[in-house]
Amino acid sequence: MISIKNISKNFGKLKAIDNLNLELNKGECIALIGPNGCGKTTLIKSILGMVLPESGEILFDGKSIKNDNDYRNYIGYMPQIGRYPENMTIGQIINMIQGIRNTQEALDKTLYEQYAIEKMLDKKMRTLSGGTTQKVSAVLAFMFQSKVLILDEPTAGLDPISSEVLKEKIIDAKNKGKLILITSHLLSELEDLVTQVIFMQEGKLILHENVNDLKQKTGEQTIAKSIIQLLKQGKA
Amino acid sequence: MIRILKYVALDILKNKIVIAYTIMLALFSWSAFGLEDNESKGILTVLNIVLLTVPLVSILFSTIYIYNSNEFVELLVSNPVKRSMVWKALFTGLSISMVAAYWIGVGIPLLIYANFATAIMMLVAGSLLSVIFVSVAFLCSTLTRDKAKGIGISIMLWLYFALLFDGLVLFLFFQFADYPVEKVVVLLSALSPVDLSRILILLRLDVSAMMGYTGAVFQQYFGSSWGLLVSFGLLCLWVFVPFYISLIKFKRKDL
User: Fold this and answer.
1) Does B37 touch chain A (CB under 8 A)?
2) Predicted confidence (pLDDT) per residue in B160-214, tens digit
3) How many CB pairs below 8 Å do chains A and B form together?
4) CB within 8 A of A87, min separation 6: which ones?
5) CA-based nearest distance A73→chain B, Å
């Protein structure tokens, strides 16, 4: 569904992404992990066309995303730090995005209801706490029944209950056969969600494997332990 | 585009600076016409105020507004919206509000007090000037990511265009007085939109003594109607070029 071919991106001298190749397919739930500053967010932003790679190309359903913007109709994106126009209220933001997307399909309002956004529609974005902003991001990402969901640190800043609600929603989306790409540092949280793991370091792809294969290969029970095991092996 | 424009326009309206700017312009122009007994003296006073304040407010307000819309732009770009569309909507929104403020503030007293043709000329020149400095503000804000730097650049550019330029031309002319530099001076004046608008109006008013040096030479060279056409064309270029450069830069920017 999304193919990434030889993309590289530099910020000054820093190589954020270094000749990366990836193939992401439908129905997979992929964990994108790696140390801070290894290029996860840059990769995600490249897929969204917010960061423009210097070389290589990204294909969405076989079509290059360069000079295209319709493909973003099929992506729901939840940013790591949601940045919204400060003077707009939650209601205005949701209305605006609905107006821009202009989909014929019914909206998915489960998160909207579960997070009780209705009560806060008149609140300005400036006044919201980090967690509430995160909830708004989640509602927007899941609202349009997109085929692809890209979630950058989705549960960071959410309280345990909201976090659980979001996780259920992610599992639900996975069961509907959507492609889900999650970055997170909390490997334990990803445990029962993901089917594949991508590990990046210094802009390079270190590992892209099925979770079961990974566990079998390393003989460990959890993703976290397998990754640590692999890293140790790599160093030894 | 219309949908994005609607949100931009609403947001600018909510920001009360544009309304304050309109009231300020209205106060200036009503009092200028009220105090001067002679119509063309009144127009000259208004002209001088317009040539200073319109560029200043247009460029400063727009630069700050563009930097503050960072989040708005980011939010839209992660959705299925063309980048160029976002930029154009911002530009149109800012231009419309600046021009509207000018029309309400200066336009109404002009149409009441001044001769109709002159008033129209003033309206056109002032509107162009507003849009030009909005366009220059777009260029400034794409030059650097640092807000303070961007605002600094726009203030410098305003100082240069509004105050320094005519002085520089005059200085050059005196330095090279022994050579036939008129053509060069005419060319140079095309480099400043403020000078161009001044010429546009003063050619119409026929008061060359007030024109500043560049205006005098301009009239000598082009005669009135040609001068009008050429300066009008140049002003339009001033709208288009800075915005177009900023659009190209914005399309390649990482958000």
Assistant:
1) no
2) 988 888 788 878 878 887 877 777 777 777 788 888 888 778 777 766 555 566 6
3) 59
4) A124, A125, A126, B11, B14, B15
5) 5
Q: How far is CA B183 from CA B94, B99, B186, B208, B232, in A?
A: 36, 33, 5, 18, 18
ipTM: 0.85
Residue with tokens 């031309």: B169
pTM of the model: 0.89
Q: Is B211 helix (H, G, I), strand (E, B) or coil?
A: coil
In this structure, the dihedral spanned by the alpha carbons of residues A145, A150, A153 and A157, taken in order and rounded to 10 degrees, is -30
Q: What percent of chain B has pLDDT over 90?
A: 43
Mean pLDDT along residues B92-117: 92
B7 contacts in chain A (CB < 8 Å):
88, 92, 96
| A92/B7 Cβ within 8 A | yes
Specify the DSSP class assigned to residue B192.
Answer: -
Q: Write the DSSP string, A109-172.
A: -HHHHHTTGGGGTTSBGGG--HHHHHHHHHHHHHTT--SEEEEESTTTT--HHHHHHHHHHHHH
